[in-house]
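Subject: design request, 351 residues
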């Protein structure tokens, strides 16, 4: 990832190695503020309150959180308590549970005295692997984008994306954005339509910030504009990330993804989902079985923006609000899955 012209990662160990530094995503794009997390409780708060977010990223932070818990107390009871505290911070993305399971499985056979070091090593390895997975997703996605561009040479390739499935949501590259960054770096003329992604505006605040930092041409659109642009032929492909893909290929992702998939299906625009294997949940048969996180109605009824005096939050309405944070796109609406192993066709028969 490129931040202020420098290549870096979105999570790294503190100088003393005992904690981690993450970007406080609540401040972006107005301020680049790195914060230190030094305990499992810090990690749990950062995930639950969305200082950090995105499926692979909360897995990485959760893994470090478990390691930090074990540095304080490493018997089985402490391990189980920290696991339980961290896993319930956000219920939808499978990567969090996956990463906690990885760390717990690595340390449980060990003597308590050896557990904290082994957990930190496993968390480091999860991060390194995430970078490699996203890089591979990018390479396979680049081949796909080259093919799509060859169908319309002589003009930019227009990609629409929803939410933030970029390097802020992973350790580097992102999932949905990895093909875009690699394509841009390879000289392919890509342009990205960035959904604002109400209510938290991850597209407007985070994806646009990332693309700007990398120099990728992009345009912000209201969430409701995608259908019109697809119908007009202004979108060549939709690429989104995901929080969990069920065994039948159903895709759970940020609320609003399903509507984009419906519009793409109706207008014959290809709809791709980018994911590493860590987001595939073979134990969940279909999207119906995925827990959809309900978040605070205040995310909907209030908006935060920058003023000359810093960030300010104002009320938008006095009405009651309901705020489901994710939806499920049925597998039949997915053209393909961009994975570290290649681009896989849809998993179920189209309707
Ligand atoms: O609620 P968020 O911001 O954590 O939701 C994130 C998303 O829905 C992303 O699209 C998904 O996690 C994929 S991240 C590579």
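Subject: RE: design request

Done. Sequence follows.
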């Amino acid at each position: 990832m490129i931040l202020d012209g420098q290549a870096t990662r979105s999570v790294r160990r503190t100088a003393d190695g005992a904690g981690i530094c993450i970007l406080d995503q609540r401040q972006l794009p107005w301020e680049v503020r790195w914060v230190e997390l030094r305990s499992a409780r810090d990690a749990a708060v950062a995930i639950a309150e969305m200082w950090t977010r995105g499926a692979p990223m909360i897995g990485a932070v959760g893994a470090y959180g478990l390691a930090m818990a074990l540095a304080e107390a490493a018997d089985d009871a402490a391990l189980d308590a920290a696991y339980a505290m961290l896993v319930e911070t956000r219920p939808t993305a499978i990567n969090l549970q996956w990463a906690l399971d990885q760390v717990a499985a690595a340390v449980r056979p060990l003597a308590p005295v050896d557990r904290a070091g082994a957990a930190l090593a496993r968390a480091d390895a999860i991060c390194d692997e995430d970078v490699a997975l996203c890089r591979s997703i990018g390479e396979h996605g680049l081949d796909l984008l080259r093919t799509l561009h060859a169908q319309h040479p002589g003009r930019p390739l227009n990609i629409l994306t929803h939410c933030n499935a970029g390097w802020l949501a992973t350790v580097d590259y992102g999932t949905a954005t990895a093909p875009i960054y690699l394509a841009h770096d390879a000289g392919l003329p890509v342009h990205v339509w960035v959904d604002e992604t109400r209510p938290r505006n991850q597209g407007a605040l985070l994806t646009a910030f990332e693309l700007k930092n990398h120099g990728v041409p992009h345009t912000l659109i209201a969430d409701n504009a995608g259908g019109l642009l697809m119908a007009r032929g202004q979108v060549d492909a939709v690429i989104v990330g995901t929080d969990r893909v069920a065994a039948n290929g159903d895709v759970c992702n940020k609320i609003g993804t399903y509507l984009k998939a419906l519009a793409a299906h109706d207008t014959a625009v290809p709809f791709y989902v980018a994911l590493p294997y860590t987001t595939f949940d073979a134990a969940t048969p279909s999207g119906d079985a995925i827990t959809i996180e309900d978040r605070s109605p205040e995310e909907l009824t209030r908006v935060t923006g920058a003023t000359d005096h810093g960030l300010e939050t104002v009320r938008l309405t006095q009405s009651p609000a309901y705020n489901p944070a994710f939806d499920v796109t049925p597998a039949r609406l997915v053209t393909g899955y961009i994975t570290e192993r290649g681009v896989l066709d849809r998993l179920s028969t189209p309707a």
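The chain has a mean pLDDT of 96.
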